[in-house]
Amino acid sequence: QVQLEESGGGLVQAGGSMRLSCAASALALDYNNIGWFRQAPGKEREAVSCISSSSEGATYYADSVKGRFTISRDNAKNTVYLQMNSLKPEDTAVYYCAVRDRGTSWLKCRLKSFDYDYWGQGTQVTVSS
């Protein structure tokens, strides 16, 4: 059974940095598109970033995080990362990683939640002002 586990969340001051990790079991992430999403209290879930399979390579970011966040993967560790710099209080949310597992490694990833099949439990990120 595919499982995703996020880690690395916590409390940070505005302007600080944090790196989230998404580790997978029972699925090789390098063949799949991975997305990071977040949900703040009282708000809808929103897409943050995605990374395409290793063979495709494209990455995309929401406008709100462009230039501050970087998504990357370490295939040897079967892990995807989200490096978050210059954090703002409005980045406070539960962050989720998700993987698309439909055998479509040639497709670029998209910032659409319905594109993804498996989701982690989430990790809380709190940015204090």
Query: How would the global form be characterised?
Result: globular
- Work out the helicity level: under 10%
Q: How large is the share of residues in beta strands?
A: over 45%
C-alpha-based Rg, rounded: 14 Å
Would you tell me the overall average pLDDT? 96
Your description of this structure?
The protein is an all-beta fold and 129 residues long. The protein is 0% helix and 46% strand. The protein is built from no helices and 11 strands. The chain has strands at residues 3-7, 10-13, 18-25, 34-39, 46-51, 59-61, 69-74, 79-84, 93-99, 118-119, 123-128. The strands form 2 sheets. Strands 2, 4, 5, 6, 9, 10 and 11 form a 7-stranded mixed beta sheet that branches. A hairpin with a 7-residue loop joins strand 5 (46-51) and strand 6 (59-61). The mean pLDDT is 96.
Question: What's the structural blueprint in terms of helices and strands?
Answer:
Blueprint lengths: L2 E5 L2 E4 L4 E8 L8 E6 L6 E6 L7 E3 L7 E6 L4 E6 L8 E7 L18 E2 L3 E6 L1
Parallel strand pairs: 2-11
Antiparallel strand pairs: 1-3, 3-8, 4-5, 4-9, 5-6, 7-8, 9-10, 9-11
Question: Which terms summarize this structure?
Answer:
four-stranded antiparallel beta sheet; globular; mainly beta
